[in-house]
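quick one
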Amino acid sequence: MRPKVTISKKFEFSASHRYWRDDWTEEKNNAAFGLCVSPYGHGHNYDLHVTVSGHIHPQTGMIINLSKLKEIVNEIVDQFDHKYLNLDTPWFKEVIPTTENIAVVLFDLIDEKLKPLSDIFLKHIRLYERSDLYADVWKD
Ligand code: NI
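structure w/ nickel (II) ion:
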């Protein structure tokens, strides 16, 4: 059996967000979310690391054509880039756009797009909100 290999590619986007629950008091929001409750939001430069798994094609030496991967992921990332995630995207109306939640949404969107490609699968993503804070998402 051929070994399984992963290949990872980094993508970048900038977006702003706010942490707030309408069903909580201001005090409770402040206690849970601190500075992130600021009413006009604040921004981050996110780094998204996408790792796909599969077999190396003997002719190309690659798991996936990188331009294909870039095309698929950029189409998704473009929907986050320079957006106020709470209002400008459909995913965070009810869900707080924490690093964890953004990463889960990104994982599901990328996974859905990669599914038709039968010979590879999305192994893992890592979303950095800053260099010292990131979320990992994968499915076993
Ligand atoms: Ni933030």
